[in-house]
Amino acid sequence: AKFVYDFTEGNKDLKDLLGGKGANLAEMTNLGLPVPPGFIITTEACKVYLDSGSEPAALRAEVSEHLEALEQKMGKKLGQADDPLLVSVRSGAKFSMPGMMDTVLNIGLSDASVSGLAAQAGDERFAWDSYRRLIQMFGKTVLGVDGELFEEALEEAKQAKGVRVDIDLDAKDLQGLVAHFKDIVAKQTGRDFPQEPREQMDLAVRAVFDSWNTDRAKLYRRQERIPGDLGTAVNVCSMVFGNLGPDSGTGVAFTRDPASGQQGVYGDYLQNAQGEDVVAGIRNTVPLADLEQIDKASYDELMQIMETLETHYRDLCDIEFTIERGKLWMLQTRVGKRTAGAAFRIATQLVDQGLIDEAEALQRVNGAQLAQLMFPRFDLGAKSEMIGRGIAASPGAAVGKAVFDSYTAVKWSRSGEKVILIRRETNPDDLNGMIAAEGILTSRGGKTSHAAVVARGMGKTCVCGAEELEVDTKARRMTTNGTVIEEGDVVSIDGSTGKVYAGEVPVVPSPVVEYFEGRMHAGADDADELVKAVHRIMAYADRVRRLRVRANADNAEDAARARRFGAQGIGLCRTEHMFLGERREMVERLILADTETDRDAALSELLPLQKADFIELFESMDGLPVTVRLLDPPLHEFLPDITELSVRVALAEARKDANENDLRLLQAVHKLHESNPMLGLRGVRLGLVIPGLFAMQVRAIAEAAAERKNAKGDPRAEVMIPLVGTVQELEIVREEAEQVIAEVEKAHGVDLKLTLGTMIELPRAALTAGQIAESADFFSFGTNDLTQTVWGFSRDDVEASFFTAYLEKGIFGVSPFETIDKDGVGSLVRNAAAAGRATRPDLKLGVCGEHGGDPESVHFFHEAGLDYVSCSPFRIPVARLEAGRAAA
Ligand code: PEP
Ligand code: MG
Asked: Active site includes 464?
């Protein structure tokens, strides 16, 4: 294998082998752009080193060959005493891992060459400062010396001289500092700082290889789901200097605004500085536009290059550049990160410029970005007082009174207050408080902290790890930069930016939601640019997608919104949701009825209510399919709480006035009490043991449909049986249902064309899908329960208990309740779909678990050949977009 590539030998499509940085340096070189010459050591070499503990045998000779070529091109040798070639040695993996791996600059400087550099540059101070930087960087990253020691020595030197900033140290001071740094290296490592340039280079390369496996790099990869075996490439690049005086400098630039997508001049420039100075924020940068005044020739050249890059990459690029004594050099470029809004706008702008087609435009945006654009946001025009900033852990704009414990959060929210739960960090005990709060704010923890994970799971706004905030839960207050927030003071948190404000910041609805709601028209002249872009992209997606998108909706209001958002029917109406609130007791009466008369009474009470619900639903989805699922309550949700009831009865008994009804109820609740309600008397099981229940529901559906038909409507009801594990269950229910439907059809003189299908949400159902299809007109995969039962994860508990640990350990990068587990649960889905269709080729297939609105899962369902996904109304645009992206 070839382990070393000259910049002239690579190209941008070789990121696997050359890393992102190297591949793009090669691409720019071949475009004829001014890139300092250099070469790339491949990720393959790194992999060999990581696997075997030593560099591949051929590497040394290959590096020598490329180094010689480089020296020839530059007309000087690495570390040559009178005119040293200096190089940078930089990491660069396939995926960007900012700041995670090592870089060493100024390789080639030594006691022998420092004066040569001084003479060539005509700048004594510059040479000693470069040498000082080399020993510091090399000592720390290559030799593992504690960086603090160098910092302290630098601080001492400044104090001794009575100055505050580095630039006030002169050549003599820096020369002294170099001696001091060399002492530190010798003392700490037991060896002298290596004077031999090639040895410096080889050690630096090895250090970059090693930095692939530091703890922080490993953690970062797990969190970002970057495979651990890719390895990093190493870029060896001849040094150019931005710190050689006022005609030198360094900067960053974007080919268009990464926040809005607008074309223009965006970036920052710092005169007489090196890249690290910009990052370190030592001096203030000036806007890139000012470069035109400072160095017009370089500015014009840079503008030209940016246009070349954008046309070539057909996308927004970001750039790092250096100007050395009036000569412009490109140090890096890549397709740049951008905000969600800019992604949509740029994609349509590039279509208009003819740079990309519609299919490509769909790949330039994603559902997560669209979801982000749908959250309400703070009115940026309003006055606001920012008091801190943390990690944007879960998007949204939340306003409420500060509370510092979950108990208060629950208590206050019950009395109608909006609260923000503020904690140092959260733990499973905070769950109730998190549910009660508008938003969650913590001063510790990162993107996978408990607060972040749980908040994202609940779709709740969260800012975590806002370290400036001092949270004192005992005193019920937090302080930050002098501002004190007491319990009850209003705070506002922005989960999309991580910003924290004192007081109430006004919230404005998202223009994108206004558009989906039909309150804003993309065609209007004054329509928001973002709305226009979203409108166009959605049209592309709808044109190409194969998957249909339905909604999970239980009432006419949700159904109507879903329809406005583009739903093509209802994929799941959970009828148990129609029995919450006041109607709960009716279900309780039904469950507890022990005589036929009681039961019939309970059922006939429910029938007209159900029917009225369905009529509304069919009306709002007229002409589109509506899948009504028969009752599937975990029983305990419909019965009084066993503990509360026991206490009540015990107290009554103590007072000797226990009432007959409560005693009966307690007895029944005891009898029906389950330790595992999720695996208990639910779904079809309930329908089979409570005579008349499913028949009542089917009758309500059929009569509602008949009435709609007679009113010239177009109802398209589908009856769905939950939690089926075997075809026998389905056969019994089907027989009974068909009888009821026939009766209703006869009575109303209509042909209802009702279909009857089942959920596939238990492993056994998936495994016997071929048999089940004999009795089902359609399948709808219930991936919530399927995930629960395939993994053996209690869906109500695990996300708040051990998932944080699992995410931190990288066992999975995202909860399998959020994104479908393709290998496990997904394989059951694929096989069941195939087996079902083998039995019944026209079997309709859908999914109605939460995964139906998850971007990555939608791609999976597209590939698995399902006919539709069903998700909550707000996720519908996301599902439409991702279905389009999957098909494009
Ligand atoms: C499922 O299990 O995926 C499903 C949609 O049903 P529920 O969430 O109501 O159990
Ligand atoms: Mg289910």
From this structure: no
User: DSSP letter at 794?
Assistant: -
Closest atom of ligand 1 to CA, residue 780: 5
Whether residue 264 is predicted with pLDDT greater than 90 in this model: the reply is no
Q: Tokens 């597209």 identify what position?
A: 862
Q: 3-state SS of the chain: helix, strand, coil percent to 5?
A: 50, 20, 35
Looking at 3.40.50.1100, 1.10.101.10, 3.40.50.300, 3.50.30.10, the CATH number of the domain 375-508 comes to 3.50.30.10
State whether residue 560 is helix, strand or coil: helix
In this predicted model, what pLDDT tens digit does every residue of 619-650 receive, in sequence order?
A: 999 999 999 999 998 777 778 888 888 998 99
**CA-785 nearest atom, ligand 1:** 2
Q: What distance in Å separates the CA atoms of residue 735 and residue 781, rounded to the nearest whole number?
A: 23
CA of 785 to the centre of ligand 2 (A): 5
| pLDDT tens by residue, 21-68 | 999 999 999 999 999 999 999 999 999 999 999 999 999 999 999 999
Q: What is the pLDDT of residue 858?
A: 98
Q: Report which listed range, 146-155, 488-497, 640-649, 829-838, is most confident.
A: 829-838
Q: Does the domain made of 4-238 have the CATH classification 3.30.1490.20?
A: yes
Q: State the distance from the centre of ligand 2 to the C-alpha of 458, rounded, in angstroms.
A: 18
- Ligand 1: which residues within 6 Å by Cβ? 572, 574, 632, 761, 782-785, 848-849
Q: Which of 759, 762, 796, 828 to mutate to test the pocket of ligand 1 (most atoms within 8 A of CB)?
A: 759
Provide the residue ranges of all domains of the chain, joining segments of one domain with +. 4-238, 249-335, 375-508, 551-581+595-632+695-887
Note the pLDDT tens digit of each residue in 787-832. Answer: 999 999 998 788 767 887 887 777 887 889 999 999 999 999 999 9
Residues flanking ion ligand 2, Cβ below 5 Å? 761, 782, 785
- Among the listed residues 868, 795, 870, the one whose alpha carbon sits nearest the alpha carbon of residue 825: 795
Measured from the Cα of 552, ligand 1's closest atom is 5
Give the residues across from 478 on adjacent strands. 471, 485
Instruction: Tell me the CA–centroid distance for residue 859 and ligand 1, in Å.
Output: 20
Question: Going by CA atoms, what residue is nearest to atom 9 of ligand 1?
Answer: 574
Which tokens go with 645? Answer: 């009831």
Is the ipTM of this structure higher than 0.85?
yes
Q: What pTM did the predictor assign?
A: 0.84
Q: Which of 449-458, 649-658, 808-817 has the lowest mean pLDDT?
A: 449-458
695/683 Cα distance (integer angstroms) = 14
Distance CA(23)–CA(10), nearest Å, equals: 6
Give me ligand 2 centre to Cα 791, in Å.
15
CATH number of 551-581+595-632+695-887: 3.20.20.60
321-334 pLDDT per residue, tens: 999 999 999 999 99
Instruction: Please work out, in degrees rounded to the nearest 5, the angle formed at the alpha carbon of residue 356 by the alpha carbons of 354 and 360.
Output: 155
The tokens for 117 are 């550099």
pLDDT at residue 279 is higher than 60: no
CA distance 12 to 26: 7
Active site residue 871: no
CATH fold of 249-335, please?
D-amino Acid Aminotransferase; Chain A, domain 1 (3.30.470)
Nearest protein CA to atom 6 of ligand 1, as residue: 782
Q: Which residues are annotated as a binding site?
A: 574, 629, 761, 782-785
- Residues that constitute the known binding site for Mg(2+): 761, 785
